[in-house]
Structures
1.
Amino acid sequence: MPLTDPTFIGQVASVTGAVVRVRLREDMPSTLVMIGGESYRVGQIGGFFRVPLGYANLYAVCTQIGADAAPHGSADEVLGTILETDGQSRLSGFRWMTIVLFGEGLGSEFERGVGQYPTVGDEVHLVTNDDLQVIYGWAKARKGTISIGQIAAASGISADISVAGLVSRHSAVVGSTGAGKSNLVTVLMETVSDGSLPNARAIVVDPHGEYASALGDRARVFRIRPNEQIGERPLRVPFWALPFSELQLLTLGGLQPNHEATIRDLVLDMKAAAAERLTTPPPPETLTADSPVPFSIKRLWYELDQFERMTFRTTGNQQTADQAYEPEAVGDACELRSDRYPSASPYNEAPYKNQRKRNVERHLELMRSRLKDARYSFLFSPGGGLEPNLEGEIDHDLDDLVREWVGHDRPITIFDVSGLPSEVLPTIVGTMLRVVYDILFWAQDLPIGGRQQPLLVVLDEAHRFVPEGKDSSAHRTLSMIAKEGRKYGTGLMLVSQRPSEIDSAVLSQCGSLIAMRLTNLSDRSKVSAAVPDDLGGLVEQLPSLRTGEGIFLGEVMPIPSRVRVRKARHKPVGDNPKLPDAWQVAERPDGALYAQALANWRAQSTSADVGTVEGEGEEVADA
């Protein structure tokens, strides 16, 4: 093309891989260029540029703009070089721009990646709206793309993302509080469930209980205290699905290695006996204490407690079962009531204490309190036929549970885990995801398997589940999904306001990054290190993004783009309060409602109908 082409803005000065340094035209009077009645700004961070190479065009995005250092001289000369006062800019000979190549176009076809590189002296042109139609036209002829908003740099161009890139390559959504992450997740889930993808399957792990209000009509919602009138289901996680180490820490706390090994063997024996009663008993050689086989944890407590309390007529090696005293009062495993034996004598005489006792009374008391704690009833007394009897027999197995979770007729499953105790939240979430992932893994040749019907797992507040430098059930499960899930049809979407606290190994597995407004320096540094391709310079835009805007990078959108996400059909509960409207209401709320708030607190529910209040501070209905 001739140098008089209005789109021509400079020439290639150097090439380092995909990073190209461009020297801008000296005779360009202004950075505002008019082409075909449209105005374009030269040197906008995130703007697109074109490098013609014969019949092909290379496309690049601007990551840096500047001017060469001024010549040596006096301060006045330096100041005069930088701050121009005459009409002809003296900086025009020093202006440069750094662009990063991301794709190649031939005619009306666009392809991600670069097959050839420019060389010194090649022309660099502005990208016009016609070029943008070529760049973003990649999605028009393809199936499996969904629209979530508009391209911020061009009016009227839809922002389409690849479903395959979203699910199979993993993704991360990061942004400060109030940047629009919840709205983006809601928009994605709305679009996935709008009927265009009738066999879609997604799980949203919701630690704040905010998505049910926005997606409830398209999702099956599970929570600890469900509102069954609107179709919510109780969240049940059977304790026997937990790995032994997690169950031990949750119920008994830390133990001496020898005691831990002994109790592990007891659990294995109980699982082996119960496995024989299953509909399809597993081979005995495959069983371990970690196997998801039911057993009675109440019976385990009862037998451990009984062993600690037993007293004998003899001492030392002569203590055998026939030398033990009969209990004065027989306990009950189902009611967690201990046997009562004759008290051991403090002197060297009968009754003698058990010489082999493990001295784990404190641990057993913790176990008993956990089993009776109503906050953990979803785990130890889950109901729904999942709670084993004393022989380890159950009415419903894990297949029924997973069918209820992801085998229903709606495309989205919401696990509202806001009611879970915070100390066990990572353990429970990790166990739920592990159960689902393992069943889909072993069903990979069946129509319900992950390869036949892929699953997307959306994890809000991801830094709580995969923190840097820590280990938990959730951390291990999510690390495994991040590394192996792509092969078996399970995708992961991490959503976090603190990307600096997310495990680097997990974040590095995300092939796509959606970065919304981020102001914290350490968070931006972590994002910059995780940016796909060589586009770290775009991270500098993050503090200046508007609410609802995000930079989409990687497999989810082949073109690195600044996108204005549309508003969700229904706002999540976690959306910002309506200020100042909420403070402009003339009448202040009734102070007696604090009694209802207290009832909600005690009932662990935010529902407005937990209790009713009559009179000042009088609570007349308990939860």
2.
Amino acid sequence: MIDYHDCRVCMDVIVYKGLELSDFQIDAIKGIQNNKNVILSTHTGNGKTLVADFAVNQCFDAGRRVIYTAPIKALSNQKYNQFKKIYGEENVGLITGDRVINQDADIIVATTEVLRNMMHEDREKIADIETIILDEIHYLGDEERGTVWEEIIIFKNEEARILGLSATIPNIKDLCGWIKEIHDEEIEMVYYPDRIVKQQHYYFDRKLGPQNYRGVMRNYHRRKTEYGSYKNTHLDFAQYAMEQDILPLLYFTFSRKQCEIKAKELAGKADVLSDEEKATVRQMIKNYEKFYPDIKKSSSWAPLKSTLVKGIGYHHAGLLPIIKQFMEELFERKLCKILYATETFAVGINFPVKTVCFDSLHKFDGKSFRNLSGSEYLQMAGRAGRRGIDDFGLVFVLVDYKSIESGDFPDIYQMKAEPIVSKFQITYNTLVNLVNRYSDEEIEEFFRKSFSNFQHIVTLDKQRQELKQLKKKRDVHQAWEKDPDCDVKDINACPVIYERNLQRYKALKARLAGGKEDKADIEREMEYLKPLISSYYKCSKEQRLACNERYKKIKQLDKTISRKERGLAHALENGPEQRFKTRYRQMTQVLKKFGYIGHDRELLPRGIFCSKIHVQELLVTELMFDGFFHENSDAVVNGVLAGIANENNPLEESYKFSFDLNQIYSKLLYISMAEGEVGLDSNGWFSNNLCGAVAAWTENEDWNDIIRIAEIPEGDFVNVCRRTTDLLRQVRNACPEDIHLKNKLNRCISRIDKGIVSLGL
């Protein structure tokens, strides 16, 4: 616990933990003290975490419960260890898919998915939570996981207050407006777009040194012929960084393999540690190997050690979690001076550096190659500049002349963070939990409260305003009689209007001569037009041209207004609320057909089980009620759940699996056909490529043999195992009264969560 004697807490807090606070921190803390929801958006490194720490400390001091949620387990683990040191192990709990420790503690650290699940399934356990800290709240706009953040905000207890933290919310007003509207609560919006530690952004060319965008383009156009084989490399920049004494350096490259290759390549040419630092690194390695002896089984450990003693390392998701943890500890202690990393290193965990360099601005996003978004670039670049250490941070991008040649070379000076856009979707798990607790009317109210619907309403208001302005503009142009330069008394005598009416009359006459249409309607319209073309006012050429130009503008405005009116009408009929209601009805039909929901909306046994499952709920539930978990061996259960839990493109089986998977595929087809009948697109999957590998690990086959045969990075395989054990826990918790099955699933978990997979947990 932080002693409040060290924090002058009044309505003008200026010091906390011995640090003088910035204005935005003071504003956020005032909001917390005044029992408001607070959304704080400011750059990485400015000190958002300090505000979160204050909120935790205030809750603890007052005997109130607080939950700190993070988007990644690594950040959850880091915060848990940090809070344990401050408040004592007995006062802090951790709940993730992997671990449940002291879940009734006053300070809980959890992943966001865990909190959402508790809100639906076990609200009593969190009924007295008074502060919910949502770190990286901009994940609300994440394609796959954003719904989780929305549901937490919508379903929070009335007494609970939200503290949302993010580096990138350009549309913070929308987010705050939404929270204020759905809860009718005060909200403190704190937006500080400046950096405390300023940054300087450059491109880097090995011959030219640091350059701005214009300098790079000018140089390329002057000396285009010289760039056939010219290439800037990480070695060029590393050499420059060492010469300029701008370490530590975080070097981003979007290839795991290249992280390792580049680190080894540089370690063969450079050494940035003192003898004393080397001795410390070697001792840390020895300590880790003593405490985690299984780490020596890793094929990644030995080659990494050889670079670490030179102050050079790498970090990516393909490494074992325990190795990533070791790298983070080294980096935090400034014993790794140059770190090659993928973008995962930029999320959540606070590791600022003097310098950041991008190997490229292109990345593969799982579907195609594309340039970094503004938010991605700024998130990663935000690591540059340490508060209290650096006067400014340095950010570099290697110049890639091939990208310039292809016309695909982004200007980093134009990059801006993109606004958060809701990605809200309904899952079967959410649906059965809603049906279990709320009426249809209340569920429809839930859809109305979604951020997606709020943004839709905001967009509709903007469209209405645009239409209003366009119509006003058209009215001005149509006010012919107010034109002092026009002598026309009868508007139809105006040459422009006369010509328009005349052409219409001629067209009708031609149609009448054709004899194929309703003569009465055509003759009626011709009779209406006859008096309108009876007189013609002879204007001057200048007047005629002016009127003609005005008429063109009116015609263009009419077309634009008509198009926007159609768009507005379509948007009104097809908004998120309507889509959600339709999807709700369709999904309910599927659930009733499969026997999850009864005629009176009560949850049947399948529905109750489904309400506890968060991965491919229908497939897992159907397998349960078909007896799959009871009838098959531990290895088969683990192998099949690995294919369910890990979304990936199915490949050829990388490791032989003895179980006939056709029964899984037939079950998926059965679900897909039922969804298709009601108009739903199926999003089920099954990844068969690692089923055999997980089964082999369950049967105690050799770790290195599995990794070699399966051709999978160690960290990815651990991630597969952890996702599988998480799903096993869900199944176990969904049937607590079946003691035989519960014991079997516990055994299944223990046969995966062992040895090298469990290191560091």
3.
Amino acid sequence: MIKKYFTNFSEKYASKWLVFGIDLTIVLVTFLAAYLIRFNFTLNFDLSQLLVQLPFLALIATFSFLVVGSFKSVIRHTGFTDVVNLFRAIALMSLTCISLVLINRFLGYVKGFTVPFSIIIIHALLSFVVLSASRLIFKMGYKYLKCKFQSTKRVLIYGAADSGIVTYNALVSNVNKTYQVIGFIDDNPQKNGKKINGIPVLNSKQVSKRYVETNNIEEIVVASQTIKSKKLITLVEELVDCNIKITKIPPIEQWINGELSAKQIKKVQIEDLLGRAPIEIDNPNLLNEFRGETVIVTGAAGSIGSELVKQLSNFDVKELILVDQAESPLYDVQQDLKRAGKHNYVAIVADIRDSLRIDAIFQKHKPTMVFHAAAYKHVPLMEQTPYEAIKINVNGTKILADTASRYNVKKFVFVSTDKAVNPTSVMGATKRMAEMYISCLQKESKTKFITTRFGNVLGSNGSVIPLFKKQIENGGPLTLTHKEITRYFMTIPEASQLVLEAGTMGKGGELFIFDMGESVKIFDLAINMIKLSGLRYPEDIDIKITGLRPGEKLYEELLANGENTLSTYNKKILISKTRELDHNKVKTQIEELCITNRFQNNNIVMKMKRLIPEYKSNNSDYEKFDKRVQIYKKAKGLLQTNLENHYGNL
């Protein structure tokens, strides 16, 4: 209400013509003051001549103000540009006066009429100082009254560089909310102890819990674009207990028309606390790689698939084909592309298990590249239904890969998971089998088959982050399977960039893995999410340990036993050297498993364990089969040795 009153008052009574009148009055008063200064504050000058000069000065000042337009600025937002305009107006007025005086001296239009140049110079200086000061006084008075009668948020800005100054300007000029910047935080020793716009620059050690509470700080805005994740984590852990809000400005490229708005300042997200710098892949070859290609993306409505579609739509592809069996999510992706002004795409509702349907799609659209992201990925659910896991993750991949090979597709990029490494679950085992089948098919196909393997994706469907967010919204508790469980994390855009990069650099047969830095302890991540929500652990929201789920690992791996890596031109992307397979034998066994796949879970899992030696179930009913498989393999090996010895003796 108070804010509305001040806004209406300033718009109604502080119009540009009122400002014009005040400026003109100041110019005339300072002209009289210039005479008094010139004659040592005595009246030893011709008052009648002064009265004649004032109307001429008023006309000249009016002309100057109208030409420059200095009176049109909004006084409460006076800035450097407005002061420059005042200087231009005063300079024009003074030069015009000097010119008219000189012309009158030479031509003698008005006898006895003259203005000493010293008066003009003194008047120019006085006018500029008083006009600038009047605007500054009005601005300070307006700000004081606004802060006094309206609630003000007291903030600190982290970063005293250019982005910090831009953030300060965005906050103080915000019309919807009043901010009072108490200080800047910057660890640069050259800036420590200095002031910016009268606001002190502090180092991070000075900003303690006591300092925040003493100065009633309500928010810290992180303006630094180069702040390290560990520093941000420390800031959150140390200060978020003070009931303080920690926000962050977006990257410069996301600013609206190159300018930062206070509305763009958002809460620090859990993605900012990954503990490593975001991975950015800048490969100009991507433009050439996808130009003129017809690209199929399966699982196009999923987390990774939809981001792949989004990024691929920015390339000059001939046609983008979106395949997914989930109708509603696929429709949403289609609408997003329409809103983005994209036209070269086709959305198709189809099931990758339907070989006739997939063949018809390939026959009609003749794709040159395939990105296969469709899969079942929920570990506990797939542990209960191995039949479905094999049907989608193995047989679906097999059908798609066989079709791509039959139609001589250039490249087939398969999206795998770190759960395929030394699998402990049915889901991980099926993804490993899909990797193995693609590796076998590479030996007999012209298509270049490429596999990408990475960890958990932040914000993806079924990931822990959306689950924690919902639990926080519902008041908790947060459910965690084990206090020591760790995971590798990456964002959806990072994962999609990796897949596209693999599609570019892959020559066929490679398995690309991603250097994801250090693994993240989920318990610490949960606590940070609680704190970022402005809540306290365990007072406001507790964390409940539920125990490992069937098939779930305590920690994930990126390399299996017997695997090592080769480097690429991007130090964050490595090529895994997998163990050698008996390709004909493995391919035949996978094909037989897909054909004989039935609802008999025990038989299916036994066959999978025989096919994948490193598959050892964890916290699952299928652990009982691990010993049987070992006994079976020993017996088989012993039988084979005896046969070889027998026939060797003949």
4.
Amino acid sequence: MASSFGSPGMQAADRPSRGTGRATTAGLTAARPKPQLKKVMPEIWKLMRPRRWLLLGSFLLMIINRASGLVLPASVRYLIDDVMTKHQMRLLPIIVGVVIAATVLQGVSSYTLTQLLSKAGQRLIAELRMQVQAHIGRLPVAFYDENRTGTLVARIMTDVEGVRNLIGTGVVDFIGGILTAIFAFVYLIILSVKMTLLTFAILVIFALVLQRAFKTIRPIFRERSKINAEVTGRLTESLGGVRVVKGYHAEDSEAGVFASGVGRLLENVISSLTAQSTMSLASTTILGVVGALIMYLGAHQVVGGQLTTGGYVTYVGFLAFMIAPIAQLVSIGTQLTEAIAGLDRTTEILSEREEDRDPARVISLGPIAGEIGFDGVTFAYEPGKPVLHGISFDARPGTVTALVGSSGSGKSTIISLVCAFHTATTGRVLVDGVDLATVQLSSYREQLGVVLQETFLFDGTIRENILFSRPGATEEQLLHACRIARVDEFAERFPDGYDTVVGERGVKLSGGQRQRLSIARAILADPRILILDEATSSLDSESEAMIQHGLSYLMKGRTTFVIAHRLSTIRRAEQILVIEQGQIVERGTHEELFSLQGRYHDLYMRQHGLETNLFLAPGEGDVQPSETVAT
């Protein structure tokens, strides 16, 4: 990878804050259909299939575990009727021995199940997080235009968390409870058909009520994930822009925004807790009704001789094993519902088409000469609202093309198309005569380098940030790039040298130092096409002079695009394109455009006049190399 594409360098004025280019990516915070189990079942199977043998073995182990758990209540019947009532003491050691063996077997199987499935669930979460992060990283820039960073972080870290219940202890409790209920039901039928059928009828009605309740609570959990992502997103932005917040004394305002989001989250949680409490109340009531019914019918059957005392005690024990899983469905069902909602949201991201998955992108580029051509290019972030109109020009290999114009004229949109961040709505962007819309982006972007006004640095060392563009570079190549970009002049003064940690976004370095580091990164990448987007406009003259040498070296022999650069670079450009309202209104060299006395002349003189008034002594009129052409 030859450039740091994660940098927020494109001018916001050149594009709407939210847009898709081709209108193919919808914001993830938009309203979505309620998650349906049928919809996510294929995704659940995808997760389960690689672990099917583990699940099958766990299922068999679960059968053994639940069957062992029923030995104790089953033995009570023989203990009361045969040992205590009929005094058959020879059966007592057998009964006790069987109970002890079953208990040991149950304990070992429970431990094994928890170890196998809990660890498998955590591995699943790790795999899903890596899969989602890798997929998001391969999505087009339009996707990032539509979705906040914090929201995507929540998708990666939070949404997949509940999925562990699909393969972990949640599913163990759910399926195990069902198995226990089936075993218990069969035994209860043997003991008393009448009591069992009446109890079963009541429980079926309760199960239907639960099913309807879960349909109601499922959207609540989905909404919770959405709100949590929005709150996390705003908090991430607020913390990332803490200097702006403090600079405008907006701490209270941001606290209010966060409090509002937390309030919405609290309301959602309260709604879900109310629903869960209602279901718990219903389950408790049902248990009381069933208990009273069994007491009434059981007493009549024992007195009538249809059921022994031991049989009745055993019946009550097994009835608890049948009812308990249904009562647990309130909590277990909530966990599984949350897991399904999270998986549904994760599926939305994974269904977004990656950049290189476009069936039109079939051409893999080899080494390129670097000729870029725009052929009647029109582009719109939103349908029907074009920001570029019929742009046509050619940038020959090894030349410098400067883009000049007022803010919002479309300069950064042109650069975005050169970088293949977006695709032309109509017309073609060509690289060495090949339509960029048909090119596999990985083969193109590895030959592309970008130096932006707002340099993006990771919270790592100087060495790591420079090697970002070419991880396999040697130490000699790294030091060579640093010498050209003058990084060595400050890096080697630090106690830790190139292993100095720069802080989040390079906060421990000055603006000039960050920019020199960015240039070294681009030099190390050795790109064929170079983008300089406001690369020095925010620096003072001394810092600008320090990096001009590095920029000159970097531009040599490469096809370079420059936006609103210093005059020294603009004047050397082989062609200058004056962009206004998405159209090229003038083109030519500095001398040609200046002599036209048109739009470029006006911009140039206005900037010159501003610089003169601010910085030049009376009578001085010569333009200095450090002056800036109009942006």
